[in-house]
User: Fold this.
Amino acid sequence: MAELAPEAAPPATSLRARLFSAAREPLWAALAAVSAALAISFLAILATGKDPLAGYGHMLEGALGGFGPLGESALKGSVLVLTGLSVAVAFTVGLFNIGAEGQLIWGALAAAVAGRALRLPAPLAVPAALAAAALAGALWGLIPAVLKTARGVHEVISTILLNWVAIHLVHGWLVAGPLAVPASANASISVAGTAPIRAAAELPRLLPRSSGSRLDLGLPIALALAAAVWFLLTRTRRGFEWRATGAGHEAAEASGIAVARCAHEAMALAGALAGLAGGLLVLGTEHRYPGVFRTGYGFDGIAVALVGGATAPGTALAGLFFGALRAGATRLQLVGIHQSFADLIQGLAVLLVAAPRLFAPLLARLRGKRP
Amino acid sequence: MTGATDHGAAATATVTPGEAPLLELRGIVKRFGGVAAVDQVSLAVAPGEVVALVGENGAGKSTLIQVACGLYRPDAGEVCAAGRALPPGDPRAAIAAGIGVVYQHFMLVGPLPVWENVVLGREPRLPGALGALGLVDRARARREVGEAAEQFGLQLDVDAPVESIGVGAQQRVEIVKQLWRGARVLILDEPTAVLSPVEADELTRTARALASEGRSVIFISHKLREVFAVADRIAVLRRGKLVLTTRARDTDAAALAEAVMGSAAAPAGTDPATKLAAPHSASAPRSADSSAAAPRLVARDLRCASDRGRPALRGLSFALRAGEVLGLAGVDGNGQGELAEVLTGLRRAQGGLSLDGAEGLVPGGWARSAGAARAHGVVHLPEDRLRRALCTPLSLEENLALGHDAQPPWARGPGGMLLDRAGRRARSLELLRGFDVRPPDPLARAGTLSGGNQQKLVVARELHGGSPPRLVIAVQPTRGLDLGATRLVHDALRAARDGGAAVLVASLDLDELRALSSRILVLYDGRAMGELPPTAGDDELGRLMLGQTERAHG
Assistant:
């Protein structure tokens, strides 16, 4: 169709929009990127003089070899699914949420405090503590959104800075000071941190202890939320208005959509999802806010959302994959390979997914000139 | 096949014997995928000649230009300059051979002064060692640019930052840039699309002047009137093929329109827009006594600021009745854009604004937010479609839903909370086909459509996507559109008027205003300079547009 325009000017796309060109490629593009990342890392391990085959074998076993490893993969995966969704939801309205880490930290702290303070039976204590986590994350996520809509502060800057505010407020002051367990009261525990949560607030395990799996309610919660986010974004009017805001906020505004409200809502949800990720960590595995808590899950959420194409199903799959990668990575050390090779795989996968999108306009131009 | 044609004899190349054409395209073929965007086109331009290249959006004009200036490598054929074949796909060779293009979208750096923009990339160096170090001879550059502008009679303040001068002056910067670089063939890609009538006339004179001193000009345009004013010869492209080349004096507008649109041009009565509009117009026919009814829109002493905080409207008052089209004339930047934004709830203003008696500017009024304006039946065909009307990464059906996504058939469920995907698809297909949007694929991304089809999409959505509009605000509704799309947009606006809407059309194209309006309001410096009937001449309108009152002349 000649109408399909060499004459139509290509729409200007921001770097961010290109990075998150949602679901433009089918699943196989992400799979190809991950496979290539595995292959390159294989060569890198080989170059260090170690045995990559044995390393990958151990990694596979650590991720998928039995109930115990599967449980670990699911634990980490469910947290990554939530932080990934956090980044993906923010992107829907055109915001790049680098702040999932900070939102996660507040969510974790809120879950620890609520899980300790609330005297409720288990069926109420867990939802209440999770709600506290979501609320804390949502409020922290709302700050950059309001700064953006009211004052024009770029959300990448504000979310990065707010991460540090959260880290220093929580780690440097609250957990070390007002909320710390007095050393005398709990001398058996050498590590600092908040008081442990009540047993009723602990996330229920799904499998008996004898199975060796720590699989808990986190996985079904994360997957249900992924399904809910998918429904919200693709089937509801509110989701459509969010997407329109992200795809062209001036056109969305002219069509009568309250674009500032959309940005606030989406960032609050993004913060809530990251906060819930923190809640899962505290209620599921830590059972308190530990004194040293450098998760990196919030930052990895960016990678998860990128590889997942910023769609809910893609993000869920990518989160589970990177969860398995993280779980398996601990076993790399068994054959003397440094654990950071798992980070290399993750980083390469992101690079390989992102690179074609970044360079797509260039490639298209080259193709146009020299067919 | 050379110079494929519907009009046999007329298409033979009419290069004056003895003079080698400055630019000659021989049998150019350029395919994208399987589609030939340009198919076997041969065209020569002699020194001293202005050739107009005419055709609809997507007819292949821009592709042909890209081949001529070396940006595209043709699949067949060759480009010759002054008798020598140029290496294909080599823009530097084309520039060296004196082929210069002024694009529709200017390639200028806003904060830099005019002269720096002209010399950018080929700055003259200082003599000696300093020059070898890369130091620019600023004095010489500035002087040369000034001389070049003067030589060709182009008025420019060479020291002004480019962003501070008007669109017409920016275009002159582009022209001077090409001439300073030694262009002997100047290709102007839809140069008048962004100009006011006065500026367009000036450009026509410039093109003639360049030709008279032995250069060649290729002038791309949709507007038949100006084509006849400027061109010695006219070449018509349709679907990639050259269907007609003729001397301008050997043809007329009707023959040219037929060549441009082909025999497929549908008679006006069967236009899709009018068909779709039928149900509305039946309920509220355009009545002669509409003038007796209370006006639908009354603006009293409207004042607002521009984006830069300067006063844009300074006390504008007018009235607009249902079933009427009010034309808004004025040189670009005299408050038209701001007025449209005030009326559609996108810009704060002071003064009075009532729609069927409802006050708009009071707190909670209909003009206080875009959503409220829409809810009151105000629809908007904005000037900047790509930014203001379309979410280019979204699909056509999603773009069609914008603005009425809460109503059936776009939404369902309690409070319209859920998307009605089936209803949306059905309505979208109806609108896409009804307005001849090509391709009519509801899942295609809006950004992939050509300009004309994007505007058809916007018109379909605004005028027929939801309940019938009460007030239509259209700014430059056919800018950059081909004849077919222009007619479709005009018919849709007339159908909305006949359906009982009040229509406000702002345009720089006076012919368009005359064709649509029952009255033309001239805006100057944020105020109404006067109101004229559509029969008013260019002189009369032009004087008001320049802020000259009758009294000053009489």
Chain B is about 35% helix and 20% strand. The two ends of chain B are 60 Å apart (CA to CA). Chain B touches chain A through 62 residues (CB under 8 Å).
